[in-house]
């Protein structure tokens, strides 16, 4: 688990964000590869051992591949992106900040952007012949760096990852319930029931983390608002 260095040095913040981007991309690659391998061995490998005289439901094999890959992806993401890690990404994004391009003709008193300085909210800077406005409370991101913008967009809100996972898992559960009610073959019923059991458990864990963290962040935000 990486650690967060709570500092105000622009260079150190950018280096930390770069390290976290590499670590996050590695975790996403691990999720993608592991989920695809799991679905491949469950849905496609058994088909190879079926005799030529036997019938193979190819449509169900493809559907099972999608169900297993998405379900495994959500479970692995919950394991590799725990709440503590998401909070770490949120703190790094809050220190990084974000810049939005604005029309230079509508601006006055534009500041020259320096790589070793930071910009407060609503501050205007000039970078690569374009004018940008600071969007965060503390902004040390490079205005022309798209990866900094993506990092801030995804992790600025601490509950965004959990919300995406809950929506995806909920959609999977509803689809599997519908398929379970429409299925007439015993092997489809057993497969869907087993996958649903694992998805119920993952959905419960995600929803529990969302409720607890939502109350924690709302209490922290209200406390900061009262202090300010």
From TrEMBL:
Topological category with respect to the lipid bilayer: Multi-pass membrane protein
Entry GO CC: endoplasmic reticulum membrane
Annotated localization: Endoplasmic reticulum membrane
Principal cellular location given in the protein's record: endoplasmic reticulum
Keywords: Endoplasmic reticulum, Glycoprotein, Membrane, Transmembrane, Transmembrane helix
Spans traversing the lipid bilayer: 31-49, 64-81, 161-180, 186-204
InterPro entries (UniProt xref): Uncharacterised_TMEM39
Role summary: May protect the cells against DNA damage caused by exposure to the cold-warming stress and facilitates tissue damage repair during the recovery phase.
Family per similarity comment: Belongs to the TMEM39 family.
Name of the protein in its database record: Transmembrane protein 39B
